[in-house]
Amino acid sequence: MAFVPARAVRRAIPRILAALGVWAVLGASAAGGEWRSWCPDSDGPPSLGWHFYCDRDDGREEEIPQPELSASPSASGTATARIAAMRARLEEARAEAILDPAPEKVAAYLALQRDALQRAATFSDAFRRTVWATPGLDYTLRRPVGALAKRLWSDGRREEIANTLATLGERYGLIYLGHPDCGGCRVFGPLLRAFAMRHGIDVLAVSMTGGPLDGWPGAVPDNGRASRLGLAGSPLPAVALFDTRTKRALPVGFGVLAEDQLAERIFVLTQLETGDDY
Question: Number of helices and strands (H, E) in the chain?
Fold first, then answer.
């Protein structure tokens, strides 16, 4: 027998062990049909880390649960509860698809979403058909949105406003509060005077300091008038309607207003009840 030095034996031991390991693995694969000998026998997770995985030893593919595609809830429960259940199914399917974007889960979410959109489209169509067939529910008959109908409505409103202004002086007058040093008053004062003269409306111009107001040389000093009318401390310029029947002042607006704004506000305040125009 040839003598083998101990140092050579020690160097050969790792290679011998590696060969024995390969032989053991290959032998186990040939005998048992499974070369991943590190996989556990149970269905529990392997203990070799994230980069290792084991095939199922029973040959079955794992089934991925899918959400119920039918959007028809149980007949029991209120309509609100059924809608909430549909939304919950949709949100759950969406969350599952985000966390695990497998084609099956994404398709399941899209199917639920398509069903929800179809329900919304059906409701929207039924809604408009019902409005068309029920004049009492059609708001566009009061405030048209079509170009032709809207133009006709606007023409009618302008005529109503003109008629209101033509007879306004029979019951109402205007109270104007201004200040000699107010920049807005210097613009609004002459505008209000022209508006009042055009429509024959009486105006009481009140100077908060007693000084002259642009457009109103005959303005009277305040002397507590604004307080009695409930307009003390209001922004200037200010204009209010005075009802000669009730002896009450009804604010029309503060700051600089254009003539069409004045006319529209006076019409609304004197001819329409709250909520009629909406």
Answer: 7, 5
Given a contact cutoff of 8 angstroms between Cβ atoms, the answer to whether 181 and 213 are in contact is no
> To 10 degrees, what angle do helices 79-99 and 103-133 make?
150
What confidence tier does 226 reach under pLDDT thresholds 50, 70, 90? very high
CB 277 within 8 A of CB 205: no
Whether the upstream peptide bond of residue 237 has omega within 30° of 0, thus cis, is yes
Closest CA to 234 of 214, 212, 260, 208: 208
The β-bridge partners of 251 are: 240
Residue 52's pLDDT is 47
Q: Indicate the residue type of 229.
A: L
Question: What pTM, to 2 d.p., does this model score?
Answer: 0.63
34 phi, psi to nearest 5 deg: -140, 115
Calculate the average pLDDT of the chain: 82
Query: What are the pLDDT digits (tens) for 39-68?
Result: 555 455 545 554 445 554 454 444 544 444
Which has more confidence, 175 or 5?
A: 175
CB 175 within 8 A of CB 240: yes
Say if residues 220 and 206 touch (Cβ distance below 8 Å): yes
Round to whole Å and give the CA distance between 45 and 42: 8
What are the Cα distances from residue 192, in Å, to 72, 211, 222?
64, 18, 19
